[in-house]
Write a structure and sequence with these properties.
This protein is α/β, with parallel strands linked by helices and 314 residues long. The protein is built from twelve helices and twelve strands. It has a single domain, classed as 3-Layer(aba) Sandwich (Rossmann fold), CATH 3.40.50.880. The radius of gyration is 18 Å and the shape is globular. The two termini are 20 Å apart. The N terminus is likely disordered. It comes from Cercospora berteroae.
Length: 314
């Protein structure tokens, strides 16, 4: 049952800011946009939108690597002023060196967002990168002590960049892995039996994944949609109502305060289309599994699972 069905008078959309930079990959931004814009608390009620998405960029029009021209809703300067309003910050990849070599935006925006969380863990926030957007997070120095992934073709560059950032900032190392997506600082209860959680690869699946990697066979991530592998469904979070409750609960705030980055949820995804998977994960975590499955069905998309790190019930 969705949150809006439980209490139709007390919800507001989760606010998402997607950054834009010259040469970015179009799907890195449009994939999550499609997912978030389709998500409803009640699939039968078009007025129960779970997310509101806005764009920020450095120019009036941003040209993507594919030649598309996108007009941001606001400048980075305006985004900095309104950062406290944002629940989810999404950083697309593509032409990442346009950002990392010049230390251009959205690097300062990312740093300001993480500082906001560290200073005020009473608010629940999420930082998500798509594809090589993780290299932008790495350059910003916000991945220290976390586990992260990126596009397979950029894994080595990502490791080098993170290593340099660790030496520069004298911080903890970044554990770089090849996965569909990686989630740190979780916001839902893993449950008594982690193997029953639909977001997590079971021990059997992990063993099979390792076997495939070692044999050079099938891709490491099971290409099954969530909920079709015989496991029980998980209620996960319950949308923006639950988001409000988490922000108000004293025990939630205390737990967040003891985590890295003030308990900010950090998600990195691998190549291009994996941003869709990461966004579906967010719908499942902040709305419901059913809502995420319905979005995937509408998009005729097979949800591919990633991994989660050290889940915490807050």
């Amino acid at each position: 049952m969705s949150a809006i069905m439980e209490d139709p008078t007390d919800f507001e959309p989760v606010r998402v800011l997607i950054t834009l930079h010259e040469g970015m990959d179009t799907l890195d931004a449009m994939g999550p946009l499609e997912v978030f814009s389709q998500a409803r608390h009640d699939p039968q009620n078009k007025d129960t939108k779970a997310f509101r998405v806005i764009f920020a960029g450095a120019a009036e029009h941003i040209t993507t690597a594919q030649g598309a021209s996108i007009r941001p809703h606001m400048s980075f300067e305006e985004a900095m002023k309104r950062l406290a309003e944002i629940d989810v910050l999404v950083i697309p990849g593509g032409s990442h060196e346009n950002v990392t070599k010049t230390k251009a935006q959205p690097i300062q925006l990312i740093k300001a967002y993480t500082e906001l969380q560290k200073k005020n863990p009473a608010r629940e926030r999420t930082l998500m990168s798509v594809c090589t957007g993780s290299l932008i997070l790495g350059e910003a120095g916000v991945l220290a002590g976390l586990t992260a992934t990126t596009h397979p073709d950029f894994i080595t560059k990502f490791e080098i960049l993170c290593s340099n950032a660790v030496q520069r900032d004298m911080s903890d190392r970044v554990d770089v892995v090849e996965e569909r997506y990686v989630v740190n600082n979780l916001r839902y209860d893993l449950g008594e039996n982690e193997d029953e959680n639909p977001y997590i690869l079971s021990r059997k699946e992990l063993k099979e994944q390792k076997r495939r990697k070692s044999s050079g066979g099938m891709p490491p991530i099971e290409e099954k949609s969530n909920g079709t592998n015989g496991r029980r469904p998980s209620n996960a979070r319950k949308g923006s109502i639950s988001l409000k409750q988490s922000n108000a609960r004293r025990e939630s705030v205390l737990k967040r305060a003891n985590l890295r980055l003030g308990g900010m949820r950090v998600i990195t995804t691998s190549g291009v289309s994996s941003g869709i998977d990461g966004a579906l994960y967010m719908v499942g975590a902040l709305v419901s599994d059913d809502a995420a499955d319905e979005v995937a069905r509408k998009m005729c998309y097979t949800w591919k699972k990633g991994i989660v790190v050290d889940g915490v019930d807050v």
